[in-house]
């Protein structure tokens, strides 16, 4: 799963390389993110499925033992308590394949990040309008 040097152009291409049970999990991740941020655009960034809404919103990727979810440092920090049972770093969390995926938590994190990205974009728009 790691070490594959294929250059993906779509999330479908990315997901299709994995065994069916991993594809099912990746497709569910994708659905949950789409439901939580329907206006976000899909793309590949850093060779990972990425959702973009006024900047990168979240990324996810399959690894040997887990799905990596990358909601930026703010997404991890805001849900630190809920994520405490999972291995995490500054901007990422690992959901192991041998545990149920907390899709409702992922949905909440994506919604949080969408609000955050919209506010940041609005702030930039106001600065631009005021000539700063």
Shape type? globular
Which stretches are low in confidence, meaning pLDDT under 50 for 5 or more residues running? none
How do the helices and strands follow one another from N- to C-terminus? HHEEEEHEEH
Distance between the amino and carboxyl termini: 46 Å
Count the helices. How many?
Answer: 4
Per DSSP E runs of 2 or more residues, the count of β-strands stands at: 6
Instruction: Return the structural class.
Output: alpha+beta
User: Mean pLDDT, as a whole number?
Assistant: 92
Task: State the CATH class.
Answer: Alpha Beta
Output the CATH topology.
Aspartate Aminotransferase, domain 1
- What kind of sheet is the major sheet? 6 strands, antiparallel
What count of structural domains?
A: 1
Q: State Rg.
A: 15 Å
Give the helix level as a range of percent: 40-55%
Proportion of residues in extended strands: 15-25%
CATH-defined architecture: Alpha-Beta Complex
Strand order of the largest sheet: 1-2-3-4-6-5
What does this structure look like?
This protein has a single domain, classed as Aspartate Aminotransferase, domain 1, CATH 3.90.1150. The termini are far apart. It has a six-stranded antiparallel β-sheet. With 132 residues, the chain is an alpha+beta fold. The chain has four helices and six strands.
